[in-house]
Amino acid sequence: MPKQTRLLAISFCLCYEVPRCVVPAAKTIFIPDEKEREKAIEELYEALQFLENELKDKFFGGDKIGFVDIAALFIPLFQEVAEKQLFTSDKFPKLHKWSQDFYNHPVVKETMPSKEQQFAYFKARAASLAAPSK
What we know:
Elements (H helix, E strand, L loop, with lengths): L2 H26 L5 H21 L12 H5 L3 H8 L10 H12 L1 H6 L3 H16 L4
């Protein structure tokens, strides 16, 4: 299989896996119940470990930002919103470096909402997820 075709196939698979694995686990870390939250954090660690293992270069698609990087951009914000150190350089060194490279890339700085704006959005979403249902 040609390298470009293989990379495209891997990208599609990872774009499917990011929301399927990470989003449900990340949502549940805002659950007030301590036992359920700890279980959710373990599930989140498993999903992050999967991504850590798949990150082979500076970005998921190589030396340039690609579709998977954009799909995964929210991951570093979850630890700030959750006010927990989930995404440490010790536990996930490649993902930590990836997040630094991604958010410091000139194109990202120019086109993305600021990290503060994204944080405010996710913090509001987390509050709505944690609020009791009416």
